[in-house]
Design a protein that fits this description.
This protein has twelve helices and 13 strands. It is an alpha/beta fold. The longest helix is centred in the C-terminal third of the chain and has 18 residues.
């Protein structure tokens, strides 16, 4: 039987998920049968200032590998948007996106994190880690000073380094295979930290990266304003991120631009796979048609359900897809780069069982996301597919948002789609116009 896990925000039933508990203090989370605590790591993390926005220790969930996967490691970074100034960071500080004190004690693992072979055939027996996201900068921030009035700690880069060191000590130093993965803001983190991750692992390990819904593009909104470019520049400035962004980018462009994958990926040396919707629902709502660019709410109904979009709005969204494909084309044609770019209205597809691997999951070239990623990782097939334009793909699980999700509001400063919301996830449908 499936099990609903409302506290995570799932509005659908996840089959065969594993529940993984944790201990609150860097929080080594093991499965329920585990008895491991890691108080020394917590002290070490706090000592080096590797902390959440509120100064609490960072956290991750771990479900241990078994059988042939015992020396294989999959690190999946949680998403949840970004904060771009003290005000927006304060609004996150007392939530699970800013404090480990607010995190649930059990987490449902499904999709790429599932421990069931039928639902996750290539990675089910790996050591699977879900890194909790509580810094608001995609793990790039590093500011030493802490304002006594706000007590905000911008330390995301330190958290990333401390987390990797902790996992190396727990056995990842013997890794044979390893993947740095993430969804949404976590998918962006997996891009920005990809080469750093490779460098920290044994040279003998096969290490690759996977970004799910993390390819945010620098596009103007429907009013012609560079809204997302300005926002990312503020994130980078607030968190002191510049020194932790790829030097191959910051040496030639302003640091804020180096938060966009399109200015970074051509220099990434580590093999990387991109799973993304060409009509990414978060990007449509917050980059193309944010509330500030749509004061009369003309895009509100369209952003709730792509089937509600007018012909003119669909034309605008087709233009966005063209921009997206141009932006991701800079990743190049190397067989080490994989792509599954579907034409769905969606955001985040690898942790949801229904889109990762199920009998009705989205397909490209008759291939599920799970098979495409597994084939690419193990070298069985260098998968690189881009879907035809909407509404050509009947296998899509297009997001249908509830009206109280308020997509008309500019939520760039808040949550980043499926992995960043506390409330119920939007419904899915595979209808096409």
């Amino acid at each position: 039987m499936g099990e609903r896990h409302a506290e995570l925000g799932f509005s659908h039933t996840i089959p065969s998920q594993s529940l993984v508990g944790y201990y609150l203090n860097f929080l080594y989370f093991t499965n329920q049968d585990g008895g491991h605590t890691n108080r020394p790591m917590a002290k070490s993390s706090l000592a080096r200032g590797a902390v959440c926005l509120d100064g609490s220790p960072p956290a991750y969930h771990l479900d241990k590998g078994f059988g042939e996967g015992i020396n294989n490691w999959l690190i999946q970074i949680e998403g949840g948007g970004w904060c771009n100034n003290a005000t927006t960071c304060l609004s996150r500080k007392s939530t699970r996106l800013g404090s480990s004190k607010q995190m649930v004690k059990q987490l449902a693992f499904s999709g790429i994190l599932s421990n069931k072979q039928q639902f996750n055939p290539d990675f089910y027996n790996w050591n699977r880690i879900k890194v909790r996201y509580c810094d608001g900068s995609s793990f790039t921030g590093d500011v030493e000073e802490v304002n006594s009035a706000t007590n905000l700690h911008y330390r995301g880069a330190r958290v990333f380094n401390a987390m990797i060191e902790d996992l190396l000590a727990k056995g990842m130093k013997n890794a044979q295979n390893a993947i740095l993965s993430g969804t949404s803001a976590g998918g962006l983190a997996s891009i920005l930290h990809c080469d750093r991750f490779r460098a920290l692992l044994p040279a003998s390990a096969t290490a690759k990266c996977l970004s799910d819904a993390g390819y945010f593009i620098n596009a103007k909104d429907v009013s012609g304003a560079p809204h997302i470019e300005q926002f990312f520049a503020q994130v980078v400035a607030t968190h002191g991120s510049a020194k932790n962004l790829p030097a191959s980018c910051t040496s030639r462009l302003s640091p804020g631009l180096c938060f966009f994958p399109q200015y970074v990926v051509s220099e990434i040396r580590t093999p990387i796979f991109f799973v993304n919707a060409a009509y990414d629902s978060w990007q449509i709502k917050n980059i193309l048609a944010p509330g500030v660019a749509d004061p009369h709410g003309g895009w509100h109904s369209c952003k709730l359900d792509i089937n509600n979009c007018s012909p003119d709005q669909l034309t605008t969204m087709q233009g966005f897809r063209t921009e997206f494909l141009k932006a991701i084309s800079v990743a190049g044609n190397s067989p080490s780069v994989g792509m599954f770019i579907d034409s769905c209205y969606a955001h985040g597809q690898i942790e949801m069982q229904e889109t990762w691997l199920r009998n009705d999951s989205p397909l490209l070239a008759k291939t599920t996301i799970a098979k495409a990623v597994g084939d690419w990782y193990y070298g069985r097939n260098p998968f690189k597919q881009i879907d035809c334009p909407y509404p050509c793909n009947p296998t899509c699980h297009n997001r249908v948002f509830e009206p109280n999700d308020n997509p008309g509001k500019n939520s760039t400063k808040g949550s980043s789609g499926a992995s960043g919301t506390r409330g119920s996830l939007p419904k899915s449908s595979n209808k096409v116009s």
